[in-house]
Design brief:
heterodimer; A: 400 residues; alpha/beta; Urease, subunit C, domain 1; TIM Barrel; nine-stranded mixed beta sheet; seven-stranded mixed beta sheet; 24% strand; globular; B: 436 residues; eight-stranded mixed beta sheet; 12 helices; 17 strands; 28% helix; 20% strand
Chain lengths: 400, 436
Amino acid sequence: MKKIQLIVLLLLPIGLFAQIAIKAEIIYTVSSSPIRDGVILIKDGKIKAVGTAAEIKIPEEYKIYPSKIVTPGLIDARSVIGMSGAMNVAADQDQLEKSSPIQPELRAIDAYNPSEQLVKAVREFGVTTMHTGHGIGALVSGQTMIVKTKKGTVETVVINPFAMLAMTIGPEVSSNFSSPGTKAKQISMIRTELFKAQDYLKKMSDKDSTKRPTFDLKMDALSKMLKGEIKALITANKSVDIMNAIRLSKEFNFKLVIDGAAESYLLINEIKASKAEVILHATMARNDDDMINMNRESAMLLTKAGITVSIESGYESYVPKSRVILFEAAEAVAYGLSFDEGLKAVTINPAKLLGIDNRVGSIEKGKDADLVLFNGDPFEYTTNVTSVIIDGVVEYNTAP
Amino acid sequence: MLNKIFLLISLFMVKTVLSQDKPIVFKGALIYTIAGDPIKNGIFTVQNGKIINIGPEGSAIDPEAEVVDVTGKVIMPGLIDTHSHLGGPDGGDGSNPLNPETRAIDAINPTSDGFKKALAGGITTINVMPGSGHLMGGQTAYLKMREGRIIEDLLIINEKGVTGGMKMANGTNPMRGNGGFPGTRAKSASLVRELFLKAQEYKIKIEKGGKDSTKLPERDLRMEALVEVLNGKRVVHFHSHKSNDILTAIRLSKEFGFRMVLHHLSEGWMVADEIAKAGIPCSIINIEVVGGKMEVLNLSLKNGGILEKAGAMVAFHTDDGITDSRLFLRTAALSVRLGMSREKALEGLTIVGAKIMDLSNSTGSLQKGKDADFIILSGDPFSVYTKVEQTWVEGKKRYDITVPADKAFLTGGYGVYSSDRGEFHHHDGEEDEEGN
């Protein structure tokens, strides 16, 4: 990986790495109070300094981008973009392999397409980091990954090639496979597989290497989840499915992220007690099927109850082919979440959930220079994104 | 055919006309009449389902009237959704790609939860249409969001004397390639042309026959509906995405002289001048990102602004469930985001839709004598923070955000929406039968 990065660095025109200064009427750092009349200096892809115009002198060689509002690059807590493409034909739908309901060995990096036009589409709405990968609809559909939405190859855009195991509990699974056909069967199949993985893990730690089992891709991936190296990302919307996910996580002691979570507002105490993390469905998701009881005030209700909320684009099967977290956070704010919490739900909250808050999620010295420039309130319908900067490179710019 | 519907509707109308209501005055709002400049701190009076006066600050107020202080709020006409699938409107089935005789009114559930969504979004008039999985999906239904148990409670007879338009579609949705359905674009157009040629002949026979029943052709439901299309009473609502398909639709409408509204128009911005030159009104939708099917890979939020600049008439639609009726104002706001004027975007939500559906004498703007279809907003129509606080249909308050049972339809929540009471559309990619 290091070598590839080096080669890419050498190939890039030097101009792209020009030092950049952002001047803004308001900088929403997320980590501290907004800075009025602020300046951000970017050098070598990182934030070199952030403060008020009075505090920070812009060196002469810096190219200045004036703007009204600056936020950290947005982080999509759960997407399938890059696995699922815009055309919506077999050739660009790699998010769900239907040959078997449990396939933890499927790697996202082997399918992700950084040139997919949906990546460009969400980048231009301020998304700079995505947790994407295998989709919704199998008990274990495969692995997820974390990427920057910048241009490049999977090797140059990836932050974490194996972030979580994507799992689903609910009616969607039974519509994709002849078995499991029921909720009870779904859970029994997952438990059977996890017991095998426990056994594999135990045998693998045998001091006598001759007694260890042969390496198994499937068991290896599940072992990582059981050892706590990766989290289980379980999509569950009905309260019964959410409780099933929590029960599983207790039995096998894995780290649980509840995804979708349409009825989570009914289970606030249970979710808090379980210590599970929550990625909430798009605010504008369709209220049908197992989402019929979804509540557009969920982000507000959960946040008020002390549950940290990250907002996702999720998965869409038709038009629109993806939601956009900028708009979904905006609707969450329109439905009662505070502006600050709305911004956190698409920046620092998912950064923490994904374990990348040392690099992204807020505007702080030393962090990756991932920034979004707006010509007004980021959440307003009529505001435009004017520039998107990823790792210090201006990836999108509408200003002359 | 329509006489019976007329009769039923008139019976219901008598009831409302007889009850003389006290006038209600709404005082202090910024009023977007759409018929002229906005009025600050206006005086807006409704009675017996109609608008009886709109005046500037200080206008005389009827001493008998109930006065509602709406200072700081915004009042505008009830929104008109020119393309929706709420209520479960079926058209044709898989037996024929051309179904002029099928009627949405025979399928719609008037008690559907979907209509509560529309009210929460400020929508008062809807064109409910069969899907686009057919070249001709069937007759659409123009509905007012009145309270109702039966479809006649909601149905509107427009200025041309009909209760809906005719849904047509081209491009990939109707191209199923089996069971008599076309497999190519050229075949799609030729099937439509053959049908219209027959309809032209039928129309001539009807006209020649006049009142002499012995000279009239046999009754033919398909042909009767198409005669209404050919004589301009029933407008064609034509689903079309790609620029070549849009031009084909225009070519067909010119050849047979039918009145048409183009719908969706993902690539409308590429042929905006041609659309404007042909004088064809547009009804557009806004989707934030490209894709979901091949035909919409070039859609753009710039569509509204570009069509406006070209001089085309632009209305909006939800295509619910593609976009949500509760977010209809947002659809127009997204066009403003990328270049459409606020004025034309407001018109696109109201009067243009009314004109398209031949309803502009009674709704679509706030003018004396028109139906009291209006909404009260907490702020600017194009702000994400603005809420529709009240929706009034023909002088009756149908939605009030301060009533928890009404607000529930805005937010959703446990048991608010029911699969029994709603016909929510399912979109499963390429297999989508509705093909919206």
